[in-house]
């Protein structure tokens, strides 16, 4: 099947392209407005904010052709913001008209007890029979969004699936040959690829309308806790890019950098084992020029060809000037990674500097890497990787920073500690604590926190539950607990004793001490929702 993609260059459309290629289809791009009308099958992967999507459609002269195609009932599939664009407007971009195909307005999730954005794997409740869900086995699908289509009387005849996140919202629409998903089929593993293929199987080949509704039932859906595999990547002493892993951030053993495998192969293995996400951290990013870091871009490109769950890349996301005097903004660096297949980027040191500047001036400049990237790609694409270290004190009055009373006392019997933020891979401590950092990052537009802990990293002694609980109480965006996992029960502990949204590990997976499947079995056996 020849599939036409509406790609206006705003983000990671590569994933959709890779998914279609994996399924054996041929992909071509929309080059002009005429292609929108004549394409046999058109896929529109919406990327960016509602306003940006509509602006790009306007600039390309695509609005009227899209409306016509849909009116003429020609095969159309919208993904994520493209579902939202079918409505009349969105709270995200007030005053910007949508395509106006479906009556009503898109709204934001309220920040109640649930994290916003919704990032992760949730279920669906099918409201009518559809060939799109042929072979669907109740698998969870990947969502990442802060805005959603509400359930209303006026849009009822369009609703294909509903999903629960605090309350029910519209997660897929369909009328005739026109459909759209709020979830990302291209990032939803094998289940997502099957759904995507169902859209593409031509009607003459297969007209089955699958009676899946009864089988799926009407039970409330719930979001799964995510299990993430992390690959710390750097050049070893022979100059090859390898996955490495340290103890409290020291990656050398007997003088050499530890080599635990090849990045692309390991990522593929974790995908096959059921990882919900893969994170790459270029741990020498602070000293290299990332735009010249071609091997890392290649790793991302190759990985995204065969891994259909979200990919995050961190390390070296900041502005810099190269040896020829050419300057790049952090947005340029992030854009290169998004084009290569990243779904999210993660910012470490540069986030600390941005927060220091904000705390000094009390003003947003709009120029920090967090703000620049979040405005263009959306908050959900911006992760902050935090590298805190414990600083013990005898009483809370001994420091201006936010302390906790800890069950693990300090070397001199101190009963309190605060968490100092560091930069340059833990090499340099700054006068800023983790609570200050995460609150300001959220304010500046970050969508998620990757919470490491230098004291725990590589120790196999379990997550720092006190730190995780403290950070979860400070922000409403999702938090990924990281550092210290040594056995499957540590994941159960972190999900039972904190409200963290996800848990990440590196060493135990690389050394094959525990598989992702074993972690998931243990978490599920404890009655916690998992994919
Ligand atoms: O500052 O924006 O260039 O980003 C650098 C990134 O590299 C940061 O995200 C920082 O956390 C990471 N990093 C820098 N140096 C190291 C190092 O190890 N020497 N690794 C490093 C951080 C932390 C986790 C790790 C977990 C789980 N690694 O990603 O994988 O702690 O490990 P475990 O399960 O084995 O305990 P910038």
Give an overview of the whole structure:
The structure is a single chain. With 531 residues, the chain is of the alpha/beta class. The chain folds into 2 domains: 2-214, 3-Layer(aba) Sandwich (Rossmann fold); 226-390 and 424-525, TIM Barrel. The protein has 17 helices and 30 strands. The strands form 6 sheets. Strands 1, 2, 3, 4, 5, 6, 8, 10, 11, 12 and 13 form an 11-stranded mixed beta sheet that branches. The two termini are 31 Å apart. The model has no long low-confidence stretch (mean pLDDT 94). Bound molecules: ligand 1PR. Ligand 1PR binds at residues 230, 232, 245-246, 249, 251, 281, 283, 285-286, 314-317, 346-350, 385, 387, 425, 452, 457-458, 482-485, 505-507.
Describe the structure concisely for a colleague.
This protein is an alpha/beta fold. It is built from 17 helices and 30 strands.
Any idea of the CATH topology of the largest domain? TIM Barrel
Q: In total, how many domains does the architecture comprise?
A: 2
- Main sheet makeup: 11 strands, mixed
Could you name the CATH class of the largest domain?
A: Alpha Beta
- Proportion of β residues? 25-35%
Low-confidence stretches: none
Mean pLDDT: 94
- What count of helical segments does DSSP give? 17
Percent helix range: 25-40%
Instruction: Assign the structural class, choosing from mainly alpha, mainly beta, alpha/beta, alpha+beta, or little secondary structure.
Output: alpha/beta
Distance between the termini: 31 Å
CATH architecture verdict of the largest domain:
Alpha-Beta Barrel
Shape type: globular
CATH superfamily of the largest domain: Aldolase class I
């Amino acid at each position: 099947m020849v599939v036409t993609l509406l790609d206006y260059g705003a983000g990671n459309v590569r994933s959709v392209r890779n998914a279609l290629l994996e399924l054996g289809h041929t992909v071509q791009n929309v080059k002009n407005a005429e292609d929108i009308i004549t394409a046999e099958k058109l896929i529109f992967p919406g990327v960016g904010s509602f306003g940006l999507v509509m602006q790009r459609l306007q600039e390309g002269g695509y609005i009227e052709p899209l409306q016509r195609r849909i009116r003429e009932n020609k095969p159309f599939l919208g993904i994520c913001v493209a579902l939202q664009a079918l409505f009349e407007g969105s709270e995200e971009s007030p005053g910007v008209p949508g395509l106006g195909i479906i009556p009503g307005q898109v709204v934001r999730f309220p920040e109640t007890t649930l994290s916003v954005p919704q990032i992760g794997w949730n279920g669906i409740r099918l409201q009518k029979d559809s060939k799109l869900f042929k072979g669907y086995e109740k698998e969870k699908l990947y969502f990442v969004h802060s805005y959603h289509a509400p359930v209303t009387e006026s849009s009822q005849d369009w609703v294909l699936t509903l999903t629960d996140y605090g309350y029910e919202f519209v997660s897929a629409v369909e009328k005739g040959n026109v459909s759209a998903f709020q979830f990302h089929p291209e990032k939803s593993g094998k289940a997502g690829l099957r759904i995507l293929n169902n859209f593409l199987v031509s009607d003459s080949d297969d007209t089955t309308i699958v009676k899946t509704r009864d089988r799926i039932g009407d039970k409330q859906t719930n979001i799964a806790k995510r299990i993430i595999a992390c690959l710390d990547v750097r050049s070893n002493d022979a100059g090859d890019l390898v996955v490495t892993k340290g103890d409290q951030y020291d990656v050398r053993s007997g003088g050499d950098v530890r080599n635990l495998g090849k990045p692309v192969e390991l990522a593929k293995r974790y995908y096959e084992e059921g990882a919900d996400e893969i994170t790459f951290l270029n741990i020498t990013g602070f000293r290299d020029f990332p735009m010249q870091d071609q091997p890392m871009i290649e790793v991302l490109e190759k990985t995204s060809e065969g891994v259909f769950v979200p990919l995050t890349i961190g390390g070296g996301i900041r502005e810099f000037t190269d040896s020829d005097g050419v300057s790049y903004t952090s947005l340029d660096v992030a854009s290169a990674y998004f084009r290569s297949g990243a779904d999210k980027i993660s910012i470490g040191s540069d986030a600390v500097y941005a927060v220091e500047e904000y705390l000094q001036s009390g003003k947003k400049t709009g120029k920090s890497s967090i703000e620049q990237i979040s405005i263009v790609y959306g908050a959900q694409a911006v992760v902050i990787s935090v590298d805190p270290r414990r600083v013990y004190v005898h009483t809370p009055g001994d420091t201006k920073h936010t302390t906790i009373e800890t069950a693990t006392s300090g070397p001199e019997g101190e009963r309190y500690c605060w968490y100092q933020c560091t930069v340059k891979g833990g090499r340099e401590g700054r006068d800023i604590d983790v609570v200050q950092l995460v609150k300001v990052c959220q304010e500046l537009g970050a969508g998620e926190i990757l919470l490491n802990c230098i004291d725990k990293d590589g120790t196999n002694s379990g997550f720092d539950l006190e730190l995780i609980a403290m950070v979860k109480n400070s922000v409403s965006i999702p938090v990924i607990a990281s550092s210290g996992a040594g056995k499957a029960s540590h994941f159960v502990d972190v999900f039972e004793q904190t409200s963290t949204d996800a848990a990440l590990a590196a060493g135990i997976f690389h050394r094959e001490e525990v598989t992702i499947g074993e972690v998931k079995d243990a978490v599920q056996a404890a009655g916690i929702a998992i994919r």
